[in-house]
From TrEMBL:
Catalytic EC class: transferase
Record's subunit section: Monomer.
Cell compartment(s), UniProt: Cytoplasm
Gene: miaB
Protein name: tRNA-2-methylthio-N(6)-dimethylallyladenosine synthase
Amino acid sequence: MKIKSDWILPDLKAAQKRTKKAVPYINHFELEDYVRYIGKGKKYYISTFGCQANQRDSETLAGILDAMNFEPSESPEKADVVLINTCAVRQNAEEKVLGQVGNLKRVYRENKDLVIGVCGCMAQEEKLVHTIIDKYPQVRLMFGTHNIQDLPNMLYKVMYQHERLIQIYSKEGEVYENLPVHRFGNNKAWVNIMYGCDKFCTYCIVPYTRGKERSRTMDEILKEVNELKNDGYKEITLLGQNVNAYGKDLSADYDFATLLAKVAETEIPRIRFMTSHPWDFSDAMIDAIAKYDNIMPFVHLPMQSGDTDVLKKMGRRYTAESYKTLFDKIKNRIPGVAISTDIIVGFPNETDEQFQHTLDMVNYCKFDNCFTFIYSPREGTPAAKMEDTIPMEEKSKRLAILNQTWNKYALEKNKQYEGKVVKVLVDGPSKKDPSTFTGYSPENKIINFTGENIKAGDFVDVYIERAKTFSMDGKALCYNKNK
Ligand code: 5AD
Ligand code: SF4
């Protein structure tokens, strides 16, 4: 397939480079007249894969499309523009995306005006972009994580000049404030506090796909939180690949602990944050979580491995012992805190003994929840070049053992809630059984419950009758609206 001269293709080597150069902030976003009405009478559909950062990006894409007068569509078949916001963190996430793009071929055959766009982290990967160029002609637009704000102009070109356009920048550009946003939730909202990651864990593609660490200013974040509070939002989640690094790239005298305290003082009812790295998790952060009632007692603390040598090969900057020390400190200083984690099994040449150390840590920490993965080599990362003689069957076996182990503790933990009352922020009727409701406890436990006169966004006291591994069942006791 011929590469057109105005296409911009990704370059992982360039994406890896870091400079100290200050990142410009752009506060102004305005649509030019030639793009403002191109969505009139047309619909869009956005499909989102991967993490919360992607979910939040999709809300910006939707916001921009709304501003161009498009309307949301409930299915890709009825849409004029379909955007697939992709994840590159593991091979199976990529396969799901390609499966969806493949399915859309039929829709494109019936409607040649349809614009199918692929964006997000996969678009930052060289090999993948070439695969799409060669094998998926139905994809007419590709853009990456650094130029979402150019969507109007890119769409205009694809729609009116019938072009196929690929515009993927490898380096982060400006930090954009005030991009339009169409929030998908009415009660819970994502708030970006920083973009990118500079940790370069050896298995991880994220520092290449999302660029260097760039913090938003505290003023902008607080402005957004206050607006959300005034709009009636009950819960916000502060987002960053590694929130502990917040503010370090700004020549400011504040850090994540200061931000947490300031956000808590807005008195928005519930605050969460994602994700914190065990390496620079400060005492001041622990103090802030312990001090403010509206910072939820829940910490996601990715461990990745319980073996110090593997952690070293992963570039994680902590040992099994120091993880334990931090874990204990968080448990001891924050009453009732729940801790979840991420674990990778089958890192290149992980031995039985090293895997056993991971199990030992799970037995010690008894996590409330674990997200477990088989290591997936990502082209361009250092780990992808490491020798790996562990067969996939062995890795799958380890994953099953690990899951069995943590499931046991998750159930044990949840059992401790039986007979107790927890405050639940209601998401709405349960999808599985619409006669019941579902929501989350402060510790991020999923609670399904029965009750009357309840709606999404309410805070409800729920008496827990039965604990399960991944959720709990109960009944509403009283109705404390807006507390
Ligand atoms: N293979 C498997 N899991 C990975 N993760 C990140 N990169 C990889 C990879 N190459 C996991 C880590 C991280 C979570 C978001 O995804 O556990 O914390
Ligand atoms: Fe990836 Fe490590 Fe950065 Fe997390 S901290 S996004 S695992 S490089």
